[in-house]
Specification:
The complex is a heterodimer of chains A (about 425) and B (about 290). Chain A has about 425 residues and is an alpha/beta fold. Chain A contains 15 helices and nine strands. In chain A, helix 6 crosses helix 7 and helix 7 runs parallel beside helix 14. The chains are: A alpha/beta (about 425), B mainly alpha (about 290).
Amino acid sequence: MRKRWLSIALAALICLSFPAMAWAEEEDGGELELYTDEAYYTRFAGQGISINVYNWGEYISDGSDDTLNVNRAFQDLTGIRVYYSTYATNEELYSKLRSGNANYDVIIPSDYMIGRMINESMLLPLDKDNIPNLQYMDETFLNPIYDPGDVYSVPYTWGYVGVIYNKTLIYDEEELGSWDILWNEKYLGNILMFSNSRDAFAIAQSRNGYSLNTTDPDELRDCLEDLKAQKSLVQAYVMDEIFDKMLGGEAALAPYYAGDALTMMDDNEDLGFFIPEEGTNIFADAMCIPKGSREKEAAEMYINFMLEPEVGAANIEYIGYGTPNAEAKELLDEEITGNPVAYPSEEELANTEAFAALPQNTSLLLDELWTELLSNDEQYNRILVPMIMLAAILLSIGINVQRHLRKNKRNYFS
Amino acid sequence: MTGVTKMKWYAKTYIGFIMAFLYLPILVLIVYSFNESKSRSYFTGFTLNWYKQLFTNDLIINSLMNTLVVALISSVVATIIGTAAAIGIMNMNKWLRAAVMNFTYLPIINPEIITGVSMMLLFGAFQTLFAWLGENTGVNIPFQFGYVTLVLAHITFNIPYVILNVMPKLRQMDKSIYEAALDLGCNEWQAFTKVVVPDIMPGITAGFLTSITMSLDDFIISYFVSGPTSQTLPITIFSMTRRKVSPEINALSTIIFVVVLAVLILVNINDARKEKLLRKKAGGGSRA
C-alpha cells in the first residue's frame, strides 16, 4: 500500500513538471537578430547532431525573467541538440577531462587553466573560418598571454578582483585604495578572504609587489607568512557566501570579482568597491574545444553563436561580468557600460596581471602552503587524528568482542 | 502528581528541540523561496517569481528528471536483485553466509568516494575494452558515460541496502509456512509469490524506499560516473556555488518537501483508517 502511494506521488511529481515544461516551451526569447547569415547556422539541421557543452554553473542566460534562453535558441535555430552540464571549479573541469571518460565539445575554462590545457595538449586548435563572428571581438582581448595567437580559445567574459567594502563599517575613507586595509587590525573579524589558493595568494603577491605567476619558493613563503599574519583578522575564508555576508552587513571588507560586486551593490546601497593601487588580477574565461570532441564544426558553430552580439549581450546581462565582444557591448545598457566598476578606465587596469599556467612543482607547493595556512593549529592536530583512529579501532574491537560473547551466551541457552 | 507534570514539561521541551533541529532548516529554506531578492539573509518582500522561473529553467528541470528517472530505475532493479540475493544468502551454510554478508556490508562502510572512483575506473576500462572490440572485431557496443553508467552505479550501491532490509524479515519468517504451502498444493513458484513474498513485503518496501532515498541524495558517486548528458540535481546545485545558488533551488526543495509531506499524511490517514476497520471487524478484539 505504502509503495503504491509513493509511486503515485512520484508519478504526480513527474506529471507536474511536464506541463510546466510545455508551458516553458511556448515562451521563446523573441526574435533574434543574427549577424552571421542563417544559412551558416542551418547547414546541420535535421542530421540528429548533438553537442555536449560544459560550463560554469549560472554562467549563461537561461531564459529566466524573459531573458534569452541561449541554449534553446541555438537548438531551434540550428537543429543541433545541446546537452548542457555545469561545474564549479576549473580543477573539476580539468579532472573530468583528464579521466578521459566524457566527450565534451565546448568548455569554458579560465585563463590559467587554458594555459595548462594547452601545455598538456588537451585542446583542439579552432578553425577561424568557421567562427566569422570573431570580427566583433575587442582587439585588446585578443592574443592573451595564456593563448598566444588565439589558437585554442575565444574569450567569453573577463573581470578583475577588487575589494568590496561596507561604507557604514569603514572607520577611515583614507585607508581605502590599498590591499593594506585587509591587514588593518581595526577590522579584526570583519574581513572575508577567498577560499581558493590561487586568488588568496594573488592578493599577498600583489601587496608585496611580486608577480602573480612567480615560481620563486621564497616569494611564495613570504606570501604565506603574510597570509598567516592576516589569518587572525579574517572572519572566514569563503566563496559565494560573500554575497550574503556582505549584503547582510556581517563583514566590512571582502576581496571579490568585480562582476559579482556589482550584483551586490545593486542590492545594498551601503556597499562600495575599489581597485587596489598595488595592482590586482585580471581574468578571462574563454571558450575552447577539448580533444575528444566528436562534433568539432558544430562546436565551432556554438562558439560563433555565443559571439552573436545579441546573444553575447544577453549572457553578459545575466552574468554581470565584462564582455570582450565590442559589438555586444554596444547593445548593453549605458548604465552598465558607463559604470566604472564594470568597465574601469585603462589607467585603473594598468597595474593588472593575468594568471598564467604554473609549472607543476609550483602549483604543488602552492597547494601545500595553502593547506598549511588553513591548518596551522598544528600542536593538537598531530596527536588528535591518530588518537581518534586508535579509539575507533578499540571501540570496534570492543563492540565485536561483546557481541560475540553475548551471542555465545544466547546460543548456550537455546 | 507534580512529578508527572514536570516530566511532561521536560518531555515537551525535548521534543520541541528535536523538532526545531529537524525542521528549522527546512522552514528557513521554504521562507526564503518566497524572498524577492536573491539574498539568503535579508527578506525583502514576497514573490512567487522563483517558482515561475524554476519551471522555465531547463537545466534544473532536466537535472530533476535525470535524478528521478535514475532513482526509480535503479531502485526497482536493486530491489529485485537484492531480494533475490537475500533469499539466496539465507539458504547458504553458516560460514558462506557470514562471508557474503560481510561483503554486503563492505560497500556501505566503504567511503563513497572510493566506490565512486573505482566505478569510474571500471567503466573507463569498459570503455577502452569496447572501443578495442569495435576496432578489432567489428562488434560495436556504444558505451559512454551517461545514463547507463549512472544507473549501473546506483543499482550497485543500492543493492546492499535492500539485502540488509530484507534479511531480518527472512530470518523472522517461519520456514514451515513455506513448507505448509507446498504441502497444500502450491508449486514452488506459487509458494514463493503467495507466501514468502507477502511475508517479507515490509522488508522489500523498506529496502525500496531506502534505495530511492539514497539514490536521490547521492552526490559523490554520481559525480564520478555521470556524463555530459546525464547531470543529476545534486551536481547542478553544487556547480552553482561559484556564483550563487539560485533561490529556484529553494522553490524546488519546497515543492519536493510538500509532495513528500502530503504523501506521508495520506499514507498515515490510510493506515489509521485501515486499523480502525480491522478493529471494528475484530469487534474491539485482542489484535488491536
